Amino acid sequence: MPSAHSLSYAQRAEKHENPAARLLLETIIRKESNLAVSVDVTKSEDFLAIIDAVGPLVCLIKTHIDILEDFDYGLIKKLEELSQKHDFVIFEDRKFADIGNTVALQYSSGVHKIASWSHITNAHPVPGPSIITGLASVGLPLGRGLLLLAEMSTKGTLATGGYTEEAVRLARANKKFVIGFIAQRRMDAVGLAHGDNEEDDFLILTPGVGLEVKGDGMGQQYRTPDEVVRQSGCDVIIVGRGVYGADFKNVEAIRARAEKYRQEGWNAYLKRVES
Amino acid sequence: MPSAHSLSYAQRAEKHENPAARLLLETIIRKESNLAVSVDVTKSEDFLAIIDAVGPLVCLIKTHIDILEDFDYGLIKKLEELSQKHDFVIFEDRKFADIGNTVALQYSSGVHKIASWSHITNAHPVPGPSIITGLASVGLPLGRGLLLLAEMSTKGTLATGGYTEEAVRLARANKKFVIGFIAQRRMDAVGLAHGDNEEDDFLILTPGVGLEVKGDGMGQQYRTPDEVVRQSGCDVIIVGRGVYGADFKNVEAIRARAEKYRQEGWNAYLKRVES
């Protein structure tokens, strides 16, 4: 089998068994967009305004629901309405990182009830297999998908080498629920013993993407859509402030920037599958 | 300097600069208790009932505020009142694990506003130094302290070897804010180059402690207070359901179990410093 990233999104959508993975791939195809926007604001009004602005141009909205200081559950209904209106997938970037019992509660319960509305969430593999078991006990019956953090884009991250390999092995052992990685490159060959031939198709969602900026002064490092999608074979680019800027009411400017990222990301993908 | 765990809690309290570390050590001394109770329930009523029951016997209450489904900020006031009434330290076991900018928002903002009430919180070192910078920017001005997860008690954890060593190095480089570790043993010699002689006094808080049970079926493994405090030199034992059981209204039974753990933990400490 050819490596997943040489296939088209459409070919990959057909083969994926996990409903959330399939939904994401089909949304990418419908909208010709592998752009995800990460909405990192603390007020619900800004949160909804940004999502309504970028909605038509993205395949996915990434949320940090726990930074919204005026959160109430009514917001979730509005988020779901926007998801229907603009046709995007929701990914709560919770970075679960606890033992199985605890993450099952954090995922299903609390004021945020993440599992009930977020198609995709993510977790650090650091606790070992129990974190996947715990999350899957909640998410699989709901048709959700999980991304593992195999790498991070921050300076001095400990998610390297053997850690990354072990993350990929954990994903392979839990393919029904683990649909891919937050990472900076393909993971197809990572953690395989010599002679192994796994037919994986893990989705790679990549943060730390920018067209201009080089860092945020707090350890975040940036790469361009072409580097990420064409050169490194990643599937979805995640952009934050680079798209929505500082004026959340300027819909036109936000859409113009989102469209620029969408084009760059999509062209990088077209070049990748043509080559 | 002798290794920190051969000193008494009182000797160590005098030397600690971080206010949260000092508060914890002084509370341990006042109450002759190195017992922390982890309150992992989803209803505010049960949460407060358990804390009121165990409060007199613990040095610290560990919370997962994000699993409370009926959370509202009024609960925090009640938690703080109990903390005053029973004299215990609050530790929100948030396991922050994101980049600096994001954790700063998660710590200070959202509906939970953790930094404003939790004396101590914790983080995974996996993102690298930026997670400490981000959290310290919020927590240090408030006199808070951070624990790093250098190890985990779950089966198959990736927090081993070089990962653990790097976690300890990160802590040493950030001693003003990082007051210790969630771990299963002393970290004094970990990650030191040959000939280094660091005068560290990191507090070791240890989950996975039980008197009888051996596991929760979801990857958690248990050790006794004596193994943890006397043999491994840890400072605080963290116990959950082993103390509060399944009947949250049975104050007497809960207190009896807490008292048993308190005695076991304290005796293990006395044996340690006497030897």
What does this structure look like?
Two copies of one chain form a homodimer. Chain A is an alpha/beta fold. The first copy, chain A, has a single domain (9-187, 198-274), classed as TIM Barrel (Alpha-Beta Barrel), CATH 3.20.20.70. Helices cover 40% and strands 14% of the residues of chain A. Chain A contains ten helices and eight strands. In chain A, α7 (161-172) links the parallel β5 (145-149) and β6 (178-182). The longest helix of chain A has 24 residues, at 251-274. In chain A, 53% of the residues are buried. The model of chain A has no long low-confidence stretch (mean pLDDT 94). Chains A and B meet through α5, α6 and α7 of A and α5, α6 and α7 of B. Chains A, B: Its EC number is 4.1.1.23.
Task: Quickly list its features.
homodimer; 275 residues; alpha/beta; TIM Barrel; 8-stranded parallel beta barrel; 10 helices; 8 strands; 14% strand
How is this fold's topology laid out?
The structure is a homodimer of 275-residue chains.
Chain A: H1 9-15, H2 19-31, E1 35-39, H3 44-54, E2 60-63, H4 74-86, E3 89-96, H5 100-108, E4 120-123, H6 130-139, E5 145-149, H7 161-172, E6 178-182, E7 203-206, H8 225-231, E8 236-239, H9 241-244, H10 251-274
Parallel strand pairs in A: 1-2, 1-8, 2-3, 3-4, 4-5, 5-6, 6-7, 7-8
Helix pairs in contact in A: 1-2, 3-4, 3-10, 5-6, 8-10
Binding site for substrate (chains A, B): 40, 62, 153, 220, 240-241
Organism (chains A, B): Macrolepiota fuliginosa MF-IS2
Domain Orotidine 5'-phosphate decarboxylase (chains A, B): 34-256
